Structure formats: C-alpha cells, structure tokens
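Changelog excerpt

This revision adds worked examples to the README so contributors can see how folded entries look when concatenated. The first example is reproduced verbatim below.
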Amino acid sequence: MKKNYIAYILLTASLMWSCSEIKDWQDEKDNIPPKSVTNVVVENINGGAIITYKLPDDPDLLAVKAVYYYKKGEDLKEAYSSAYNNTISLEGFPDVNERTVQLFTIDKSMNHSEPVEVQIKPLLPPVEMIRKSLKVNPTFGGVYMLWENTQEDEISITLYRKDAKGDMAFYDAYYSKAKEGKYTFRGLENAEQEFYFEIKDKWGNYSAPLDTVLTPLFEEEIVGRNKSGDIWQRWGWDDKSCIYRGDIVGQETAANRQFRLIHDGNTWNNSTWWHTKGNKLSDFIDWPNAEYTVMPLYFTIDMGKKASYSRLRYWMRSRSPIFSAQTFTSFEVWGTNNPKPLNQIGDGSKEDNLKYWTEWPEVNGTDEWKNDWEKLADFKLTLPSGATDPNLLTNEDTEFVKAGFEVEMDPQYANEPFRYIRFVIRECREPSAQIQLSELKFWGAYKE
C-alpha cells in the first residue's frame, strides 16, 4: 500500500511538471549590435593580408567577419574568425591592387556591428612568384620543369603545345604543393615544338604564361654488349682495385652467376643472373669476425663510353615465389667521368681509400667520393599494394615485378654525359647483403 502511494505522488508531480511552462535554456536573443573592433593593423603578404585587431568586451561576441572582393565586379567574399582569435587571414588575391576590407563583429543573436574599413594591398600572388622561379628544359622524350613554391600552395601546371592546325592544344597537367617542385612531361617526339606553360592556384588565379620552343631529346638504349663482346665492365674487378673502393667482392663462381649476365637480354628468368655472396668486412681488411657484414653495398660500372641517362630498369631473379629473391630495394645511382685515382687518396693505402670510398664506420668511412660525383637517382622500391611478403602479392604486384623496376634519372643531367656509374645499395630485398640481379638496362643518349 505504501509503495502504491509513493508511485502516485511521483506520477502527480510528473504531470504537474509537464503541464507547467518549461524554461528555454537557449541563449536569450536581442537586437543590440556588438561594438566594433579597434586598433586594426594590416600585414600584407603574398596574395593576401593578415589583419590583427582588438576585440570588443562583449560577453556574447561570436565572431569577426571580413567582407571583400577579389576582382571588382565579382561577388563579395566573406571570411570569418572566432571570438577567441584576434586575427583574420585573407588569401587568394590575384593582383597587388589596393582594396577595401570591411570588418564586422557578430554576436550570438547574429547582430552585426558597424563596419570598420581597412585598406589592404596584397604582395605578389604566389602563382606569379612560382612563375618567376619556373625553369623548363628539354629532356629525353619530354620537357622537364623546376620551380619553387615557398608557401606550399596547391597549384596545377598545364602544358599546351601547338598542334597541326597551329592551335595551342592541351597536352597534360600536373598538380603539386611541393616546396621545391619538379616534374617531367613525357611522350613527346624528338622535334622542335612550341610549348605554353600555365600555372593556376586553387582560387582560380593564373600566372603569366611561359611560351617557349624546345626540342625533346632523342632516347635510345645504352647497351651493355655488341657483336664484338661486352661493353660494360665491372670497374676494378680484374685488377682487384675494387677492394680499395669497398665495391662488392663476394661472387658466386658458377658460369651462370656472373656480372656480365646482367646485360645478356634475358630479363625475367631463373637460369642466369648475377649472384653476389654478401659483403663481409673481412673481404676488405683484417677483421676477427669472418661473417661480419657491412652496408651499404657498392659496385661501379665502366660503361665503356660516355652517355647521358634518362632511366634504368632492373629485373630480379625469377625465383619462386615471385619477389622472394635477393634484390636491392633502396639505392642511389651516381655518375662521373673522372674518378679519383687510388694513389691520390690520402697516402694511397687501402685504409685511406676505404675511408674515402665508403661510409662504413668500421673503417672511419666518410663517403667523400660523393663530392666528386653527381647523384643521378635516389630510389626506394614499393609494390603497388605495398606488400613486402612474397606470399601476399596481388596480381598487379606480380605483373609489376615481372616488368622490372624502372628508375627515372634526374632530368637536370639530361645533357651531361658520364662514363662511370656507381650504385650505393642501402637495403636489399631480404635482410642480407646479397644481390640476385637478372638484368639491368639503361636508356639515354651516347655523347661520343
């Protein structure tokens, strides 16, 4: 009986509450406008302005709104900054003309203050700064671009070329926000052509165009052998001077595992390949642990004649499962015509040469040789799916591996020939310092 009485009291109270007027807990609305900002300071920047101000002491202040235009005759733009900030940033202006900006404060009732007008005069738009830094040059089968984008703005660079009718026709576009940009438009024939480059930012602003006439370079394969025999040689192997340079010494002795097989034309096979035997420090100097391995690996090719290089492609051994053989996955490629003679390095000793030619801490290596060579490529291999386990490859990964791994050379050296090519291998496919390389091909152009 007592429980029923308590339930009755609670139900009655609930009904009384539901029938009474419920208070509106939302902020009360008014029609009183907030005060305006004061102490306004303008900092003009490239393509915009940063406006600083003192906020009014209004408890219900919500935001500050800036009203402005990019170009006269266009719709007005609006930008907002919260009541917790005392600055508002405006960007995307297409020129350096002076313009008026109106600043309003807004409260929680959406009342607007009286406007405060300030003058801004944006500095040179980023697209024009990028345009001033843009450099274009011919490269193999295309044109190569370099530019600086210090503000890391989102841009597109569009290439047009004159077609058979004499009109500038769209060819391709590239999108980037890189601080130091570079890109190559490929697939262009080796003939003089008129080009037109155009830079556009995310606000739709265009730079002044760049018009030029260029002749993309002719590309051919830089072959490793001809009818007379091998052209490429493993530099320093025959006289064993490679030991002084830290170049790979360990080598399988079988006839179908030799260096010369990397240019025999057999790309994807499991019968012939170059097979090294690790990189033991004891191969180079007296060392108590005969199995102690050093990285990175080095090897140098005397290409037989000078050539400039556009790209290379290499194939690993086609061992099963696919992508299980040792191959290099992170490496650099360097070029020179005048490698320093061994007897001009320090006192000519092996110790002084290893210090110069390697970065191995065990021999106090400095890699000083890099000061005398040019870096042509820096590559890290990644499969399309990102897989690293040979048992988890997708069909796309499998085709990617079979096609060989292509590496693009730095186009800034497209017109610079080199005779000696040196590889610096930082990582191998397996955690071992071995290489199983089926084929290596280069493309570019001979210079002699």
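The second example, added in the same revision:
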Amino acid sequence: MHAFPSRVPSALPTSKNPATLSRLYARPGFLLRRAHQISAAVFEDECRGQQLTPAQFGVLTVLRAHPRLGQSTLARALGFDKVTVLRVLRGLEARGLVARESAEGKRNVSVLLTPEGERVLAEAQKPAEKAYRRLMAPLDREQQEQLIELLQLLTGELEDDARAAFVPPAR
C-alpha cells in the first residue's frame, strides 16, 4: 500500500487527543466526503462559464440520453432523492435549460432539455472533461482505474444501504 502525502492537519495522539482525530481523518466516510467536496469544487471551477454544478450537469446528461423522463425515474438515474431532484430541476427550469410537462395532472411529470439546455450541455463537455482530468491528475493510469473499480465495488456492494435508490434508465 502506498503512503500518500496529505495536507490534512496531523492528528497524532496526545493527552488531549487520544487518536480520535487520526481515526476520524482515516475513515472512508470522511475521505469520501472530502473527495466529493474537492470534486465538486474542481467541477464548478472548470464549468464556471456554464454556471453548472455537478448535479445539474448530471441531470442534463441523463436527459440528453433519455428525453422526457419522469421526475422519479430521473431521480433514480442519478441516485437522488425526490427533494434533491426537484431542487435541481427548479434551478435548471429557472434558467430555461429544462422544461417539465405533465401528461395527466401533476402526477405524471416528464422532463426534457430545451434547446438552451442542449447548447449549455454541449458547451460544458470540454470543461467537464478538463475537471475530470484535473481531479484524476495526482493518480497514474493504473491508480485511476483502480480507484474507479474500488468505488464501483463499494457502491455496488452497499447499494441497498443508500438513502436514495440508483437505477440507471433502460436503454
């Protein structure tokens, strides 16, 4: 196993700190949350011209591949809960990037990209790829593949414990 340099403050055991911080900083949940914060910051920095968050980019990407998805199906396609998908959709709708249509009343609402949403998503492809490369830059190719494989293993094995279901849409 490699020892990776870290800018996390040292938390060596002391009389006031009996290794609690060092255990905290080494916990997978802490590191995954921190990695997510960094990933989101890098993405938002690279996509600042498009003013997109990772969640918004995800919604636009799924809708590009699967037009007119229902809101619940869209939420599951990204592993979002209903509140999160509604919050993201409201922001995208306010910017004119998506539109919601109801077939029979408000219960069956489908979501689609607008032409402006298509344009912004197309414009965001290069910055999003740059964000991906920037995030993965500290790792060599083998480590990048290993990281993705381990994250897929972890999320796949523990999917039943998630608060929101992840169900990719049918092709």
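Reviewer comment on example two: Residues 115-136 form the longest helix (22 residues). Residues 21 and 76 are 35 Å apart (CA to CA).
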